[in-house]
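Consider the tokenized backbone below.
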């Protein structure tokens, strides 16, 4: 029986948690379309806030999901056997080198959870994908955040310099989220050669399929030379499966075998496995979407520059921009015009920085027209 006297006492549950958890702000996603519709009563809304591919899944993928939906009374294939093997064939690696996750977020957390022990640390860039800092803070407060260089790129020599005898992990987001900048093949290899081979380097290539620079590295190729490398990619972006959450990591088979032990049972659901399998059979779609993104991104960058934005060159499906108007004010005004973009406050940046996803032509045009209207009277 519950002691009534004790149950009535006020109890501070925060005393139960480690300081790393108490100091973390929950991940803040982009505002969903439905929320804006409810708040403002708008129907014509475009969302350019969360780096989703604007064209949606291919019809063949939808068809595969519909077929797989007939069996959702059954648990998924816990080993994702078909997807693992098809993905290994697609990447020309052994299936034992593939680890699947509920989005690449889960994989990153699995790697941190599996490798970091009390007193050890991990190195990553700031600003970069916020999950690195969240995972590091929650897991033994083990993060070492190294500022980007003056060109908003990973400062790889400084990151290498932050590695010590307690460093277990080093994270590189390439292209970087939220800046869209990238590090070259030579720069990544220089880093890999300058740090101890016992340090696992995670190359997060969530936007791999959008990158077009000649000297942009292919992490799978680098794996042949550097066994301490792990490459993380996702079906959430160019394959447009963000709502199903399926990502994958590729690394040395002995490393992946141990990481498999940290995977939650049935972590990749039945529909996600079917959709990803179908998506792997659509290489022409990937090429078309990559080209569309490059063309539309160039047009949008030109228009934003004309409107007074500082635009950082991007290899992703988004643009990182700065403006004299406060980002919070600009986003609020855009919301009223049915355009959702992302202020960068949650990434720890100042109130003049924004990230704008590259949409299809009509969406980009609407965004530019809305910005023109907002900035007509701005004299910052």
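A designed sequence for it:
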């Amino acid at each position: 029986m519950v002691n009534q006297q004790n149950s009535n006492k006020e109890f501070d549950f925060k005393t139960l948690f480690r300081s790393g958890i108490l100091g973390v702000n929950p991940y803040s996603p982009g505002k969903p379309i439905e929320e804006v519709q409810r708040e403002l009563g708008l129907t014509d809304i475009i969302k350019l806030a969360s780096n989703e591919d604007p064209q949606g899944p291919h019809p063949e993928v939808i068809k595969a999901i519909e077929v797989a939906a007939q069996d959702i009374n059954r648990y998924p294939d816990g080993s994702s056997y078909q997807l693992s093997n098809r993905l290994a064939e697609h990447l020309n690696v052994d299936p034992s080198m593939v680890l699947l996750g509920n989005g690449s977020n889960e994989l990153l957390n699995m790697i941190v959870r599996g490798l970091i022990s009390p007193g050890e640390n991990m190195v990553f860039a700031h600003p970069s994908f916020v999950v690195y800092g969240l995972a590091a803070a929650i897991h033994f407060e083990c993060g070492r955040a190294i500022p980007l260089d003056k060109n908003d790129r990973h400062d790889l020599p400084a990151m290498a310099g932050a590695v010590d005898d307690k460093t277990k992990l080093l994270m590189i987001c390439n292209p970087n989220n939220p800046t869209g900048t990238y590090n070259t093949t030579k720069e990544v290899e220089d880093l890999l050669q300058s740090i101890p081979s016992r340090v696992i380097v995670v190359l997060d290539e969530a936007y791999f399929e959008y990158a077009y620079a000649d000297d942009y590295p292919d992490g799978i190729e680098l794996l042949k030379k550097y066994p301490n490398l792990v490459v993380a990619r996702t079906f959430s972006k160019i394959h447009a499966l963000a709502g199903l959450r399926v990502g994958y990591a590729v690394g040395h088979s002995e490393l992946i075998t141990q990481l498999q032990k940290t995977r939650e049972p049935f972590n990749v659901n039945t529909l996600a496995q079917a959709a990803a399998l179908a998506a792997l059979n659509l290489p022409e779609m990937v090429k078309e979407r990559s080209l569309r993104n490059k063309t539309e991104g160039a047009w949008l960058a030109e228009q934003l520059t004309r409107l007074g934005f500082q635009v950082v060159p991007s290899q992703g499906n988004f643009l990182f921009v700065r403006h004299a108007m406060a980002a919070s004010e600009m986003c609020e005004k855009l919301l009223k015009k049915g355009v959702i973009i992302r202020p960068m406050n949650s990434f720890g940046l100042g109130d003049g920085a924004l990230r704008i996803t590259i949409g299809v032509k009509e969406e980009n045009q609407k965004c530019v027209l809305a910005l023109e209207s907002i900035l007509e009277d701005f004299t910052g």
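The chain has two domains: 30-55+284-375, 59-281.
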